[in-house]
Write a structure and sequence with these properties.
The chain contains 14 helices and 31 strands. The termini are far apart. The C terminus is likely disordered. The protein binds one DNA strand of 8 nucleotides through strand 7, strand 8, strand 14, strand 15 and strand 20. It is found in: Nucleus.
Length: about 625
Amino acid sequence: MSAILPKLSDGSLSQMLADQRVDRPVLQILVYKQMTQSEPIKYRFQMTDGTEVCSNFIVILPELIQRISRGEFEKFTVVELTAYTLNINKQMERQIIIVSDMSVVMSGSKIGRRLDKSESNGPLLTNVSLNTNANRIEANVSVVTTTPSSMASRAANQQNVCPISAITPYFNAWRIKARVTSKSNKRHWSNAKGEGSVFSFDCMDDSTEIRVNAFTKECEKFYDMIETNKVYYITKGTVKTANKKFSNLVNDYEITLNSDSLVEECSEMEVMEVPKMRYRFVQIKDLPAVGLQSCVDLIAIVKSVEECNAFTSKKTNKELKKRDIILVDNTSYEVRFTLWNEGAEQFDCEPNRVIAVKNALVGDFNGRTLSAFDCEPNRVIAVKNALVGDFNGRTLSAVSNTTFQLDPDIPETNILKEWYEREGNSVTTNSLSKSGSEGNRDTEWKFLSQINEQTVGNDNRTYFNVRARVVQTGRQPLYKACGQNGCLKKVRDNNNGFYHCDKCQTDSSQFEWRLILSVAISDCTGEGWVTIFQEQAEKILGISAKELSELQENNPQEFLKALTVAEFKQYVFRIGSKIEHYMDESRVKSVAFNFTPVDAIKHSKQLIKNINEWTN
DNA sequence: CCCCCCCC
């Protein structure tokens, strides 16, 4: 092998395990495997620094797991650990290294064997001193605990901060640095077990989000201190399985503060790197595929704002206030979004602004609607965590942790504004919030094994909702189409610079790249192939047919990467199936008409019910 | 150890 082999950071493992911070150690992967079948998926890696071997590298972050699925970290690959955290697992009495980011230095197939010490980089400190980026300086200073300075204490603060996604009930040495995205009111409760007060807040870092609860003593201690949008270090607390009844965040766990808990506000300097807000936007058009009572985030134009009305609930006799606003996005679909009580009174936004909503509740009154409860309206335009409901269609509601942002500083805002100015303000929109049964709510949920000649109609398409994982994508999705007068027929290359269309009977030097993508999808009962056409194919791959064709011609590696972005992700697909008869057999053929990524749907009671029915 | 996610 003539290639220059990468140098491993010899000695780094013993330092790392002794809790001495090593910045960006270069290690070789010897083997890895998936730890459990259950969610969340975790991987355990065995790595070497040339001398020592450690089998306790754990990968939890979805982004990294996706890269594992794509084969990026094959055997013998040399990687640089760009972010890791050492944790002492008390139950198992051993150290675990949580890897939250790593990059490939050289692929395993190029190296082809285990590297040993003679090929490593010699004493580690030499390696460290070669580099002078900010992280490295911090890493070095943090070891010098005998000479405290502001630098040193800041470095000490940063030390052992782990991503929220690494928090599980199985170790308690975590320390997170997180932004508070919403804070509840203080509530009093009394029942058979006693009485007390409680409040909760949602925290976010660049890995994920988590709900934090504080009861009675901790409620009094921390309620005034916690402020929305501020960043805190939090350490010590009881980690338990999240109660989905009270939380709509995408996290299996939540934290309850206890008497050992420490909460410390971050200095100005330190808050910068914690993201302001994380969204998983769903398009309005796709709301029908979203389960009722789910929560979604979306970004939209505020088309109109109705009056705030007060009325008395017939069910509870409670005095309620509500305000409806109409949201529209560049799918040309609109939905009604209902704000409640203070949120309804205080909402102050002229039409035609862009709104991003986090955590809206999806319902179905006269189509799909969104609603919000007692939310503090910021001057914002993105909705996070809207709840999907089901009164006569689909609606969106805001719940207590729903937030919005007006004209958020993200690329989607400009895309929407441009669309609205160009055509959106004049286009006829399809409302998901009107009477009738449009949308997918009447579409039956099926497992893949249930889609067969008994369930599929003979002549027309039968529509189903399925939740499935993409396990493979076809490698030849592009074709040259005629493109004249809306003709999308495949053309034949005359090999003289002209392309012949059988349908139009023309030869033209022009053609249009189009997509017919085949994907193999799988659920817990079976698998099958579905066809995805142009617009939906561009959407699932996140690239236009034209851009993809350029990659195909100029960059085979990037082409393959672009083709496989959807692999191993889960979606809810709305598919149409029909039986096609051939000479000696008949086959069920399916087309995916739209889809929603499952991680954008959060928890859906409909899906959970469906799965429970199947498994019981 | 706690909240109902409300209305048409």
